[in-house]
Amino acid sequence: MAWKHADRLASALDLDMSDWWSPTAARYLGAVTKGQILDAVTEGVSPDAADRLTGLRKAEMVEAAEPRLIAARWLPACLRTPGRPLPWVKAAEAGASEGSEAEADAVVDAHDAVEGLGAAEADAEVEVEADVEAEVDAELEAETQSAAV
Hints:
Elements: H1 2-13, H2 34-44, H3 47-53, H4 58-72, H5 87-93, H6 97-114, H7 119-148
Helix pairs in contact: 2-3, 2-4, 4-6, 6-7
């Protein structure tokens, strides 16, 4: 019953939970199975990206999947607004899926580079990653709008 009301409210507000929530290790990926992570990457990024994660240990899989799913703005089913287009599907329909996977790989590379830095340098690198993610989001939005026209 509560879900029905929540869905109606989310639809009325045209709520996009990907603006407010991300599938991080702490919030989601650490609590689900490897199979669920692979399903999420298959759906949100691409089957090829999921294939590259197959065989990794869970910690490595989470580390590799997290930035890709965040860049794709993927959401689990319980956070999706009924009737609202899914961000990763809109990107694929606009022909941006190849570019967004390459951009997601760039975010992953930046994330990997942070591991060897000190705390202050890591904070600066995280800001750069946020800027990259914002640029990716802006490019995807522009491509989506130009495809709609």
